[in-house]
Amino acid sequence: MSSTLLSRRDLRFLLYEWLDAPRLTERPRYAEHSRETFDDVLDLAERVAAEHFAPHNRAADTSEPVVDGGRVRMIPQVKAALDVFAGTGLLGASMDESVGGMQLPHVVSAAAFGFLQAANVSTAAYPFLTLGNANLLLARGSAAQVDTFVRPMVEGRFFGTMCLSEPQAGSSLADITTRAEPQDDGSHRLFGTKMWISGGDHELAENIVHLVLARIPGGPPGVKGISLFIVPKVLVGPDGALGARNDVVLVGLNHKMGYRGTTNTLLNFGEGVHRPDGRPGAVGYLVGEPHQGLAQMFHMMNEARIGVGAGATALGYTGYLKSLAYARQRPQGRPLADKDPTVPQVPIVAHPDVRRMLLAQKSYVEGALALVLYCGRLLDEEKTAPDPADRARAHLLLDMLTPITKSWPSQWCLAANDLAIQVHGGYGYTRDYDVEQHWRDNRLNPIHEGTHGIQALDLLGRKATMDGGAGLSLLLETISATVSRAWKADGEAAELAAQLGAAVDRIAGTTRRLWATGDPALALANASLYLEAVGHVVVAWMWLEQLLAVDAATGAAAGGAADGGGDADAAFYAGKRQAARYFFRFELPRTTARFDLLDGLDRTTLDMRDEWF
Amino acid sequence: MSSTLLSRRDLRFLLYEWLDAPRLTERPRYAEHSRETFDDVLDLAERVAAEHFAPHNRAADTSEPVVDGGRVRMIPQVKAALDVFAGTGLLGASMDESVGGMQLPHVVSAAAFGFLQAANVSTAAYPFLTLGNANLLLARGSAAQVDTFVRPMVEGRFFGTMCLSEPQAGSSLADITTRAEPQDDGSHRLFGTKMWISGGDHELAENIVHLVLARIPGGPPGVKGISLFIVPKVLVGPDGALGARNDVVLVGLNHKMGYRGTTNTLLNFGEGVHRPDGRPGAVGYLVGEPHQGLAQMFHMMNEARIGVGAGATALGYTGYLKSLAYARQRPQGRPLADKDPTVPQVPIVAHPDVRRMLLAQKSYVEGALALVLYCGRLLDEEKTAPDPADRARAHLLLDMLTPITKSWPSQWCLAANDLAIQVHGGYGYTRDYDVEQHWRDNRLNPIHEGTHGIQALDLLGRKATMDGGAGLSLLLETISATVSRAWKADGEAAELAAQLGAAVDRIAGTTRRLWATGDPALALANASLYLEAVGHVVVAWMWLEQLLAVDAATGAAAGGAADGGGDADAAFYAGKRQAARYFFRFELPRTTARFDLLDGLDRTTLDMRDEWF
């Protein structure tokens, strides 16, 4: 059992000492569960990750999938691992029992999936894509579509994709041109090319269920004319039997810097290679109503965006644990006070600069994991809170947090991986150690499922203003509630609360000031900086929450450094306190310069002209 | 001729409109030269880079060197390019004519070499290592050693390495154990293992001249007992003829994430595989006096450290130009004001967030290049200033700037490469575009030739305190002189000067406060943050210097945005102004939080205990 994927002690803290996940079992949906079943699922996920996913992580990188006679060939360990995973039933961890799921709380399944992503993010991507696809169809598909496509996905027989981008339309979905022509039987025929389709072709499953955005001729231009279709690789009969090959053709694989084990494809729909019934076009089935494709896809996108943040977190977390293990065993140099070259060298964890790099990683990855699980908890609230008002509030808060939970870990857990390499020194730059691959793999996360800049426009341009700013108000109130609790707690928590309270005021003031301009171009000119500053405040909030949980667990509100003596729990809590301190001392103050710049309505990027570069 | 390596317009500005390089030709050493010969050398370097280095940059990455029957095999383009390079005589660009050099100013040769590093950093590494080696021997070797080893290096027949690290001793040179046993004939025999030796074995040259740190038995422990030896791969007779194979054995190649075309080796000395005269040990020749190895190696190290900064800058620069070219031709989305999906998409350079990413890159890479060339200019001053006091001052200032010039570009031009990927979106994450390789290649730079943390200790622990703080005072006075000039210039320069002046005060105050503790462990606890903050101030200084040069060139001290109209020069100057603004508005304010933290004598990393992680 690998101990360098995620920390079980940290998960225990987050799930049981902070988020009180077992309390969810009081609700009917989760009544069959208990802390014991949660732990069993975590055990299972950790074991599968360590025994079946981690061992081929490097091989999946060095021997990436290739196209061979029109078919995708890859190392056999991927399918072997995914078959084991399918056997666990974990894909349906949070789904209804009625479709073969386990009905676990999301907060628990998110923690469990973290092990798989930490162990091998590119093999884990196949079930993750499938999960997002299945959840969308569960929410928006017909009963027949669920029976035909979702059940086999839950069983692990079918895998899923999402097909949005086209070569000329990535961030700009308004510009997709794939068209779907209605047929007499109610189905459609699709024609077009889709780019960047992860898991778009392989032989890991019996079938691949593509969810494809396309235009029905005659619809409105732009995003308002996009519809969503199920396009299976292999047609499925009414009895569930596999039929003829649909006209979905692999044009080629993209060759990436990382995440190499996940096929990333260029697909042609309706090219004419396969004609199951002699007629042209890829057979597709409309999901829901026409022209609702974007809204439907966002159901999946929001989930996928939090999933991206979770994946980034998992990669950051395992890199942190690996660099910590390295720092504890690598002897190099001596403390400053002792220059005597005849005394033995010390492990590098003894050097303050190495401790700085480890503390930074710890504060990033544990902060990010707290945020990811907090979102999982909100999903559970949204689904099961007894009071509908609580559900609505959870939904709104989750909406606010989605761009942050996508982007913050993608930026800072990548930074953690950079520090993990640095802790390893020259060794970290070699392919003999895992951390360089984690860094390469993690670099995808600020790009896919909406780039960093897209998330920034989403947060400041849409989420912060929707419903007259109701979402932003709710976020700030929720953070302020933590600040109030910490004030009362006294001690160090109260100190940090003052700092966080001031940061909350800055978010409110800056947002007001930006939108008071009445000029969207000016307000949004530095949206990325806004996203980053707000993200840091949100993660500071996650750290204050954790500090309060530590106070509660130790009965000590005094905030002083706990004695780290022999007791493992005491050391764990002391580490949490120190990481919280680190974040408030080293990280949160960085936001001041960002808020200042935003408050100044800076025009530098707006005024820059193309010809001046 | 590639236009995406470095900008010739920028070089013209830096060399001729700012640093006034042609003025150096008034000095005897450079009297043979003129602006025309400078331009010829830049033309030559750019052509060789574009035609012989750039074309195999990707191939050198995908087909890295392998060991085959004990010999290193690599793609033939590397040797072909290096043969062309040797034919240009550029290796000796700044060397004395007496040893076959061109006696060009360093500021010019540094600019010329930038093209090679931008085109193909891993092929360029071979001559760069050779250059550092040759310069060390020119400074510290005997006349016979220069004749035997340096001349063939200048001719491109021999290549050089530096062999410092051992598996158990990387950052901690006090712990090297390779031993050198004196022989009756005055030579030594070496026994030991050296790790991370770049260019340590290959068949690109007739011979490889290793410069090796080793201990002569009986010497003092630690760094005081280290001596420097020449250990050629093949022995060289008094007549210069190649003789028997010396006992230097390739144990293996390291497999890196980037910089893959440069062999990086584990070498055994005196393993007993080759015994030229039947006796054990690798034949080595002492350079200078015994036990002076560390000081001698630092002659090379200082040059190498500035070279690392130059290489990082070149990679950042070419990535910037490539992402700019991409942003100008990739259509995606529409301006905020125009959501009509029926109008054509705009090139992404039109989006403010993309302009932000390009401006950030521009400010990093042009700021870094200014710093690198400023250091080149200081080298020329150190060597040729008529007044010895000026030489001493240049030496001291260069000493101060060395850790910054090594680290700042390694951090921020890597950040530039990250942004270059982001500008490319998903395409930037594929190996079809250059930027992902630049990012991987550049990641080495914060590690080798002394890690980021080592540079930080050097700056704050040694350079800032040496000679009673004389070096730091000189640096701050020199920056202050620019501030004073800018004050008088009025307009925007005066505004930025106020900001820079305040930052200079903070450096002075923070340094005083840290050392007033009298506690080196406390003073140095956050040395990396000090390095980063001082680095940002130094680069802000470089930007104010450039702004003043723009003012001088345009006759306008008014600092307002110049009209970017049709005139290429006007657009160039407007771009410099905007990049300077960007740096002062977006970057320099980041240092406040860092200086605040340092002033607070923060103990977070010191107090953290190993068992709390």
UniProtKB/TrEMBL annotation, chains A, B:
Q: Does the keyword Oxidoreductase apply?
A: yes
In terms of Pfam families, this protein maps to: Acyl-CoA_dh_1 (PF00441), Acyl-CoA_dh_C (PF12806), Acyl-CoA_dh_M (PF02770), Acyl-CoA_dh_N (PF02771)
The Gene Ontology terms for molecular function here are: flavin adenine dinucleotide binding; oxidoreductase activity, acting on the CH-CH group of donors
**Top-level division of the source organism's lineage:** Bacteria
List residues of the Acetyl-CoA dehydrogenase-like C-terminal domain.
476-608
Query: What residue stretches are annotated with the Acyl-CoA dehydrogenase/oxidase N-terminal domain?
Result: 40-156
Q: Which residues form the Acyl-CoA oxidase/dehydrogenase middle domain?
A: 162-262
Q: Identify the cofactor(s).
A: FAD
Domain Acyl-CoA dehydrogenase/oxidase C-terminal residue range list? 292-458
Which keywords does this chain's UniProt record carry?
A: FAD, Flavoprotein, Oxidoreductase
Against PANTHER family, the record matches this protein to:
ACYL-COA DEHYDROGENASE (PTHR42803), ACYL-COA DEHYDROGENASE-RELATED (PTHR42803:SF3)
Q: Into which family does the record put it?
A: Belongs to the acyl-CoA dehydrogenase family.
Q: What is this protein called?
A: Butyryl-CoA dehydrogenase
Origin species, per record, is Micromonospora palomenae
